[in-house]
Amino acid sequence: MGFLAQKYLTEKDGQLWLTEDERENLKISYRIKNIIFEEQSPFQDIMIADSYDFGKMLVLDGVVQTTSVDGYIYNEMISHIPLCIHPDPKKVLIIGGGDCGVAREICRYHQVEQIEMVEIDETVVYASKTFLPEISGHLEDERVHFYYEDGVHFIKERAGEYDVIIIDSSDPVGPATALFEKEFYENIATALKDNGLMVCQSQSPIFHPATMKQSYERISEIFPTAMLYTAVVPTYPGGLWSFTIGTKKYQKLNPEICPTKETRYVNKSILSACFSLPQFLQQELERK
Length: 288
Ligand code: SAM
What we know:
Blueprint: H1 3-8, E1 9-12, E2 15-23, E3 26-40, E4 45-51, E5 55-60, E6 63-67, H2 71-85, E7 91-96, H3 101-106, E8 114-118, H4 122-131, H5 133-136, E9 144-147, H6 151-156, E10 162-168, H7 182-191, E11 192-201, H8 209-222, E12 225-232, E13 240-247, H9 268-273, H10 279-286
Parallel strand pairs: 7-8, 7-10, 8-9, 10-11
Antiparallel strand pairs: 1-2, 2-3, 3-4, 4-5, 5-6, 11-13, 12-13
The protein binds S-adenosylmethionine.
Residues 65-66, 74, 95-99, 118-121, 124, 150-152, 168-170, 175-176, 178-179, 201 line the site of S-adenosylmethionine.
Protein name: Polyamine aminopropyltransferase
Function: Catalyzes the irreversible transfer of a propylamine group from the amino donor S-adenosylmethioninamine (decarboxy-AdoMet) to putrescine (1,4-diaminobutane) to yield spermidine.
Subunit structure: Homodimer or homotetramer.
């Protein structure tokens, strides 16, 4: 085992296990076949592991980000919902998104002319394009332009440029912490055109209701309309995951735009049903 594998994996009865420390009383373990890639970048520990039940996994600092078995659920849900709300998306910005799964989904929209992706860690993109084509699809579309820098600084220098901004961040620790701050959302609003909209992953309604609500409230304070929707992603703790949209101008979702022949999770029913929230979640958002 390499240095990183030793840090995050344990060997028991001849079996390799990757254990994700979720919280004080919860750990989730995956049985691993082998490690495909491991490198310590200036930002984080990066591993691609092949697991028995979830196929290939991108693991950052010991936390599973996406897998070849269930990654399409998250990537489709954070991409197609905003793209079907904006009436004419031409220029899209992705912040984070190093596994390239979101960029790959956005490329399915022929009306999109330019896709910019600002990812702090070039090694995540290299590893995903090289070893995780199930998610990245190798991504050779000429409309995609990569910037390797901190999304927080990148966005400060942009005004009225984008139709849609997708914040595909890791959890709010390390370099991703600032991607959940109010000032960052304000800069996102400035970077959007007058009818632009944003979406972010807003964490687990089960295990991180406070973070989810904080993101929702911050976005509601800045954008005239905020909307929260959910999907079930088996490898994310708690299963149920939330996403929050902030729009400058209310626009009705048009399911006809969605390239459903190419999607595996999103279809017309999901597009309209995902905004129906379970009772506990609705109450949590309404609670003062
Ligand atoms: N789908 C995943 C999830 O919810 O767990 C996250 C996808 S993606 C791998 C998250 C990416 O955000 C990582 O590659 C990380 O390097 C990048 N990232 C974290 N902080 C960032 C920042 N401040 N600016 C740009 N990218 C950032």
